[in-house]
Amino acid sequence: MAPKLPTSWAQLPPSFLLPDAFLPLIAKRGVKYGWTTAPRGKPARFNQQTAGLPTLLQSPAAALKRKDFTLPLRTGALAVKKGMSALYDPETGKRTPCTILQLDRVQVVAHKTRERHGYYAVQIGAGWKHPSVLARAELGHFSHSGVSPKRYVSEFRVKNADGLPAVGQLIGPEWFIEGQFVDARANCRGMGFEGGMKRWNFKGQGNSHGNSKNHRTMGSSGPSQGSGSRVLPGKKMPGNMGGQQVTTQNVKVLKVDVEKGLVILNGCIAGPDGCIVKIQDAIKKPWPVIPASAQAAAEATVVA
Q1: Structure pTM?
Q2: Residue of 203, 189, 186 lying closest to 248 (CA atoms)
Q3: Distance between CA 38 and CA 29 in Å, rounded?
Q4: How far lies 160's CA from each of 72, 117, 171, 264, 298, in Å?
């Protein structure tokens, strides 16, 4: 026989024994409002911004505050690495090696806001992809933003809402200024499965004196009794090499070609020819001063 339900609230058990369905719902929850804005029995237990208390050092709001100094003021761009070349100074004849990057239909696809996502970021798309090879969710995402399907999509963190350009805005080579410094991120060239000599620069073993067919092998992987008869964690051994993201900091922009969509950087950056490169203002250098005319021209290039 089913148990008889209580007929009045006086017969209900204490609140901590009730299921979640009977408890009051939280009005608002998020980074902007602190941990919660619901009334608590112990208001001093958690410091809430809405209660006028100082922010906890372990709260999400405090974590974002600590990153204010290192987050860029504006978004970056996606470019394709075309290869390396050199520039010559006509006066001194000095040769400067450089990397050529090309921007292909780079547009702002979406925004990430602190109120909704917990942080500020800009979603950037580059290239073009045929709609027939995209899922419906991806097509809906691009159509909602009013941009064409993009082959490459990436996200760039920004400091605050002032660094969020309009959705659909084109970002060309004029986004960067000659002489400024940028950080370039790309996946380095993958080597596959490599041995210890190539991966970790091991010396190898001798070629003679009784050594037979063990010239490039790793050798012993660890002691026996002294280390518990095991291989210690982090031991350098043969394995997969390359293919990780590498960030090259403080790369100087030597030249910008708006007509051809080129950004020429000083020196070399990681990745093979044809790879996608993320470039953004360097965080260890002073922020570039953007001329008002260039800023107005960039905001005007919004594709409807």
Answers
A1: 0.75
A2: 186
A3: 9
A4: 9, 13, 19, 29, 19
